[in-house]
Amino acid sequence: MSTLLAILDAHDDLPQARDLRERTYQALGDTVVDVGCGGGRAVGELAARGVRAIGVDLNPEMIEVAAERWPAGEFHVADATALPLDDGSVTGYRADKVLHTLAEPGRAVAEARRVLAGGGRAVLVGQDWDTFVIDSGDPELTRTLVHARADGMPNPRAARRYRNLLLDNGFVDVTVEVHTIVYTDATCLPVLATIGEGAWLDDQAARARDDRLFFAIPIFLASGTRAD
Fold first, then answer.
1. Which long-range contacts (CB under 8 A, 24 or more apart) does 209-213 make?
2. What's the pTM value of the predicted model, to 2 decimals?
3. Domain 3-127+156-180+220-226 is of which CATH architecture?
């Protein structure tokens, strides 16, 4: 299992993350594409409700794992900007923690509009990589590390643009919410290890052992309707 998949699994198991997923499933209709599906949990959960759920991910390893874990789903290796779907063929579109990985996230949102039927719902979910909140004995270093990690992403601040991306691509009734995932134990250490190392990471591990760790990630959820 890849490190990324292990991190995603740990995140998805959090009660806060489960509640947020439930929020993203609302009003998606009976045919839903989940773009950047990772290990396929959302696809599996939607399929269990009788939805035709289609998972798409650019990573073949993720698709292989997803198909094994959730056989009721339908999975494809494909790019978020070129979905293997006909025009107007889905009633719901979901993209969770994926637009920050794209050089041109607007192209993915335009593709969402293409594959959605009139009145279909698009849901964009993800973290803004510049807004991580980490308690640390060295706030200045922590700020530097968080910004450096953000700058390593193609579009680290895509989440704060979700509303405008939807509006720019012809979606209406656009809304935005912020939900915060809070970690206070060692569950998040693999994520923190992607931000810093050495003495800084050792300090975070010590905080976890002493029940003094605090790491909060604001998650942005934007949704909109494809106009007829």
1. 211/184, 211/185, 212/135, 213/135, 213/183, 213/184, 213/185, 213/186, 213/188
2. 0.94
3. 3-Layer(aba) Sandwich (3.40)
